[in-house]
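Q: A reviewer asked whether we had any structural model of the full assembly, not just the individual parts. We don't, so I'm hoping you can provide one. Inputs are below.
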Amino acid sequence: MQYKEHYSVMEKDVLEFFSRFDKNAELLFADLTLGAAGHTCSLLRNFPKSKVIAFDQDPDAVKNAKNTVPDELQDRLTICPVNFSSFDQQSETKEKKFDGILMDLGVSSHHFDSPERGFSFRFEGPLDMRMNPSSEIDTASDLLESLDDEELLEILYTYGEERFSKQIVENIRNFQREEGRIENTKQLENIVFHAYPKKLRFGRIHPATKTFQALRIAVNKELEVVEKTLPSLYSYLTPGGMIAVISFHSLEDRVVKHQFKKAVVDDSTLRILTKKPRIPSNEEIEENSRSRSAKLRVIEKKV
Ligand SMILES: C[S@@+](CC[C@H](N)C(=O)[O-])C[C@H]1O[C@@H](n2cnc3c(N)ncnc32)[C@H](O)[C@@H]1O
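A: Here is a predicted structure for the entire assembly that you could use as a starting point for your response.
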């Protein structure tokens, strides 16, 4: 399925940080989260002699970019179809120095719009949620089988901030005992819906929203991957080079904040450029409600 028209979150802000670079220099960027290629194309267009090495672990994103990135930009784009946690193991990054490295974390709207990927309870689909469906990690359905009650509760509480976690876990276990494995999105939606008190089932946010978010973060080990990858990136920066990270979840932002703080203590050549995270303008939030929880943090290698 081709990706729909796409709005890249905080694109202007990222470009503003990168505006210190000479427009016509032969810059090298890494976009660790290619997605619908919005940020990648914006970098290639705004810096006409730059090259981008882009990563995405989702084969759909890679295929889409190969088909839709305009021909005149393709020869400056290299795609690594892998998890960005292996950034430092790729031949494409070996012995390279980058002027800008960008992470725009999480899943893309394409994931939510594809029933077969199992990210959304809007459609019936397998309860999968792996960003890379051919990887051998556990699916959301597998996790519901293999985790014990404590582990599942912890995931729903911490990644979902779900206050009805206990009731949800209880209902999940009842279903598994009576009907077997939870295989699809609609089964889980229904279980969570009925775990909510009757008077709260029809609120502004659907009861299953937080559970689906929590499971997705757990399936893809989203926080662990960011925590592991950031420290491996600093040595790839040119003097004046920057790493910009856009996160959408308070825990994710906390990981980025702590990693950056630790980095500047360990390495005096690094400096944080965002004391407080940059957030999207009201105008951007109005245009694209998905940007409302975005936070941008930037670190640089001093010149
Ligand atoms: C929010 S979207 C990026 C959107 C993109 N910046 C744009 O403007 O179109 C995040 C993308 O990063 C990918 N992704 C998330 N975590 C990843 C990881 N650890 N390794 C590789 N790709 C990842 C997802 O598959 C998704 O396509």
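A: Points you may want to mention in the reply: The chain has a mean pLDDT of 96. The pocket of S-adenosylmethionine is lined by residues 6, 8, 33, 35-39, 55-58, 61, 83-85, 104, 106-108, 131, 225 (CB under 6 Å).
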